[in-house]
Amino acid sequence: MSIPEADKKYTYADYLTWPEGERWEIIDGVAYMQAAPSPAHQLICGELYRQLANYLRDKPCKAYPAPFCVRLIDGDEKKDEDIKKVVEPDITIVCDYSKIDKKGCNGTPDMIIEIISPSSIKNDRVLKFNKYESAGVKEYWIVEPEGKIVSVFTLQHNGRYGRPDIYTEDDAVSVTIFPDLKIELKSVFEGM
């Protein structure tokens, strides 16, 4: 098993050789190791996943909690050696089951939630934000445990995210891709 080096470009084929106990992402060929999540992060992720998965029971869309590999494909990337964007969002929702294989999601998910930590702020707010937008992820949430804030970005008709809708722990968030679903943030941030 090879371990990523600083000045080298990587693909999904490389990713498959890295130790399973470590969480890595590749953005434009650059490897990023993810820090272990905090207890607060895990509680938030668990509650968001619970609410989403309960709603999606018996529906065609499914929610997948991390670790879950998402390969964001640029057009003609057919082989593992060609794929240069591999992410592991905290929660991924996929409605097109043909994108799911034994390795995760091969293509653009419908919704992604990232829970930021001090080590992931730049990647979640800038690098991944831009990749999710250009890949066509319909809804992208950035959850901030410290401030108990959720920013919801929705893909507009022009293929860009509009201004975010901002929510606090006292709000219920309407999920754009599921208009009849509201996520209660009070229970998401409870005990923080």
Description:
This protein has helices spanning 12-15, 39-56, 121-135, 185-188; strands at residues 24-27, 30-33, 62-65, 70-71, 85-87, 91-94, 100-101, 104-106, 111-115, 139-144, 149-154, 165-168, 172-174, 182-184. The protein has a single domain, classed as tt1808, chain A (Alpha-Beta Complex), CATH 3.90.1570. With 192 residues, the chain is of the alpha+beta class. It is built from 4 helices and 14 strands. It starts with 11 loop residues before the first helix and ends with a helix. The chain is globular, with a radius of gyration of 16 Å. A 6-stranded mixed beta sheet has the order 2-1-5-4-8-7, covered by helices on one side. Strands 3-6-9-10-11-12 form a 6-stranded mixed beta sheet, with helices on both faces. A two-stranded antiparallel ribbon has the order 13-14.
What characteristics describe this protein?
single chain, 192 residues, alpha+beta, 21% helix, globular, 28% strand, 6-stranded mixed beta sheet, tt1808, chain A, 4 helices
